[in-house]
Design brief:
Blueprint: H1 2-31, E1 34-35, H2 48-56, E2 60-63, E3 66-73, E4 81-84, E5 90-96, E6 109-111, E7 114-120, E8 124-129, E9 135-141, H3 147-159
Parallel strand pairs: 1-3
Antiparallel strand pairs: 2-3, 3-4, 4-5, 5-9, 6-7, 7-8, 8-9
């Protein structure tokens, strides 16, 4: 009987230790700052425009008064992609295909001289730059403020000249 009690206590201790080690490993991965992203079609990701824009983007974004640091992307990282913030990241992708929602009647928004097409999603929205020679998508969680859109607009306006819209 004593042996059974000792074995039960030892088994419970082993389960607790394994659980703590596993949780620690998950926390280390989450806190490492690496963000895994699925690839999306971006045929112009290697374009000169994306090569000009990506390094010009800010290292930090301000959203609702909080500073969002740039995130390291997990390998294999999509080309011409940048992310900021944790746990809900803001993700910019350059060189995307033309968004199908871009039509002559689409409601565009202008921020710092950059025309954006907002596309609502579940829990987030993607805003597409539609008046440059490459399409750029900025996906922001619904909880984000307008600061990221403003800061990215400033970088786009400074580095990429406007072009006519293509429907």
């Amino acid at each position: 009987m004593l042996l059974a009690a000792v074995l039960a206590v030892a088994l419970a201790a082993a389960v607790a230790v394994v659980s703590l080690v596993a949780q620690s490993g998950r926390n280390d991965q989450q806190n490492s700052g690496q963000l895994a992203l699925v690839p999306v079609p971006a045929p112009q990701a290697g374009s000169p425009s994306c090569a000009t824009l990506i390094p010009a983007l800010p290292a930090d974004l301000i959203s609702n008064g909080a500073t969002l640091k740039r995130r390291e992307l997990a390998a294999p990282a999509p080309e011409a992609t940048v992310a900021w913030g944790q746990p809900d990241a803001i993700v910019l992708r350059c060189g995307l295909e033309r968004p199908p929602e871009l039509t002559p009647t689409a409601q565009l928004r202008v921020v710092s001289g950059v025309q954006w097409l907002p596309v609502e999603g579940e829990g987030s929205s993607t805003w597409y730059v539609v008046d440059r020679d490459v399409y750029i998508g900025l996906t922001v969680p619904d909880s984000a403020g307008t600061g990221p859109l403003q800061e990215v607009s400033d970088a786009v306006a400074a580095k990429l000249p406007p072009t006519p819209l293509h429907f």
